[in-house]
């Protein structure tokens, strides 16, 4: 690995990187920064959580002329959450150089964005729909853009943003540099890329598997109606630091979040029908550990970087292997370890095999924990909490009471009672989870890795979230 100081980058950026704790470049950064600085178009593919944001962010910051008030770089991302996250990372990289960055996305007051645009940002990070909106209002001038980035390019095309992206491309100078990044690059996107790009340099970080090694991957074969109890037992045994549970539909996510709360877990759902402010507040609560479990549709999968996510549960197996890669990639980021469990009904085993074929990695079958094992998991946590209280050494006001109690009761009974009261015992309060129809029966992909696209489109309607309430357009869906 190369230390950032060995790249041809400025002192100010090096200082910012150092403050961020970045010392060595990750492989994708090492493979792309030099070419990006030279002005080459790039198609960059590397596993989830391996620093693709900085791979385009560092050269962009380097190239910004801070004396020039024009918008010099435009980054397009599929969701607002991601647009915000990318702008934050760029802000950090450009901190010492004092680069001005603005994010624009649907759901946020446009007047406020228009005022912020007057403040002459040099980099814009935005979602396609809102960028188009600003172009139409003539509040966003892109004629001096030198670098254009599509983060999660394949997802934006899947979401039907191709017309929007075409329209945006028409507004940026033809001789701009274009950078395309994602962990998955299905052949269709390469084809489109070559249409838009000039002699792109393809940088693919070679690895045996498409998913990172440090994620342990399991599957549980189970009937639909048993999934929820298995999930709660797994949560009890695993005791995740933070977990994401993915569900197939918005209804599923709402029901799961509610059911988890009924059973005593701190969970919140996130999906495209929620208001912008609700989505952001849920995400903030999750980042601040005020909730332990985020229940999400694929909306939360792409690109989000939340430290502390130790476990990912696919309550429903995703319909296409790319989604799987991005979903489980929310854990095991930046070299940390993670664990992913995918639930699969017997009829859906074909999908599991397709995922494995694509990722080139087999999932280990996992036996669902028993109720006793779940209880043992919770008791272990209770003991940890109890010991923490003891170690905090702040029991002065309780010692006398304890001594008095010990005159009447047995010491072991008292401790057992304390553990019991700290233990979240398995709970079978009835919950409502509407059964999802299993995915249509599928045989293994016949033509290897490249056949996913058409299948993905067919079932689009049932999986994807509509953009109606979100102010984002999703065209191109027939
Ligand atoms: N050189 C580095 N040294 C240390 N940490 C890094 C480095 N580069 C990036 N990171 C950190 O690694 C994490 C993952 O980076 P990033 O979000 O860019 O991954 P990604 O490749 O875009 O993943 P995804 O495919 O999920 O979008 C972030 O927290 C980021 O700050
Ligand atoms: Mg990313």
UniProtKB/TrEMBL annotation:
The keyword Cytoplasm applies. Its main location: cytoplasm. A motif (Q motif) lies at residues 2-30. Residues 427-447 have a biased composition (Basic and acidic residues). It is found in: Cytoplasm. One of its GO terms (biological process) is response to cold. GO terms for cellular component: cytosol; ribosome. Residues 214-374 form the Helicase C-terminal domain. Pfam families: DEAD, Helicase_C. Residues 2-30 form the DEAD-box RNA helicase Q domain. Residues 33-203 form the Helicase ATP-binding domain. Gene3D superfamilies: P-loop containing nucleotide triphosphate hydrolases (3.40.50.300). PANTHER family: DEAD-BOX ATP-DEPENDENT RNA HELICASE 47, MITOCHONDRIAL, DEAD-BOX ATP-DEPENDENT RNA HELICASE CSHA. This is DEAD-box ATP-dependent RNA helicase CshA. It comes from Ureibacillus thermosphaericus.
